[in-house]
Specification:
The structure is a single chain. The chain has about 70 residues and is mainly alpha-helical. It has a two-stranded antiparallel ribbon. Helix 1 crosses helix 3. The longest helix is centred in the last third of the chain and has 11 residues. The radius of gyration is 12 Å and the shape is globular.
């Protein structure tokens, strides 16, 4: 999405290595769900990825979500 000169991007939550999180390990996905920051250091706008909702979720739940997301076709 573009707003003026500002461009906001969030990765797709599929196993696509090009457009999604296919290259991320489960720890990176858990960190992303907790903080909105991907392995490249870019943060996602909470309007596109509701990471604040997951910030205080149990790590076990986030690990289960990460394991599932890695199976979603790209």
């Amino acid at each position: 999405i573009r707003r003026g000169n500002d461009s906001r991007v969030s990765p797709g939550i599929t196993s696509s290595r090009v457009y999604g999180i296919g290259d991320w390990d489960e720890d990176a996905i858990v960190t992303y769900l907790q903080t909105g920051a991907g392995p490249d250091g870019r943060s996602s706008d909470p309007n596109f990825c509701p990471w604040p909702f997951y910030t205080n979720a149990p790590v076990e739940d986030l690990e289960a979500i990460a394991a599932y997301l890695r199976t979603v076709p790209g």
